[in-house]
Amino acid sequence: MSFINISSITPEHGGIYSCHARNEIGAISHSARLSVIGSPYIHPMDNVTVVTGDEVNVDCAVSGHPLRNVRWRKDNTLLTGGQRVADHRNGTLSIAQAAKDDQGWYHCEVTGNQGEKAVGSVFVRVVERPVINPFIFGDELKEGMRAMVVCTVLAGESPINILWLKDSVPLLHSEHRDGIHVTNLGEFASSLTIPSVSRYHAGNYTCLVASGAAQTSYTAVMTVK
Questions:
Q1: Handedness of CA 182, 146, 154, 169 (dihedral sign)
Q2: Average pLDDT of the residues of the chain
Q3: What is the mean pLDDT of residues 199-224?
Q4: Terminus-to-terminus CA distance in the chain, angstroms?
């Protein structure tokens, strides 16, 4: 059994409290809101990072009671519901299919029944998903031939990390594993070279690119005749 005790309660203690329990069979949770009569208060919110094209929801953690309304603004623009960037009027801000223009400061404004106000802010950073230039090995490879492909990152924010995998197993840049050579060509490109192809080299080769909170990959199949 577990419990929470608040010995001297204030409006700042208001909010949603959750209890989570887990064992080898499964997990369960229960949440309940604690409303404390007093002026509105907004708990600090962590800044958010979202990848272009993804969706993000931000909850304004409000306490105090009673409350008249909770609204979101971007800069000086009051947001409404039913839009791609929407204020759901329940403290939740949602951004669907995030775009670079959505980046910026968002402000949650809470008004109490007596007209008291509280404002909390969160910065939403939108990072661009990396774009890989497609590559192929071709379908005429025979044993003893040479093969080389280059993974080039056309878009994405620095710093960029590139990792090669063969059949989901990483190929490290410092290794010349089984005749497979991986070489960095600067920050935005990496080559994979096989000086003498054998049937062993057939398989799926994946270039995995990570850029901040975003990542993407491209896979090409090598077939050896």
A1: negative
A2: 91
A3: 93
A4: 65
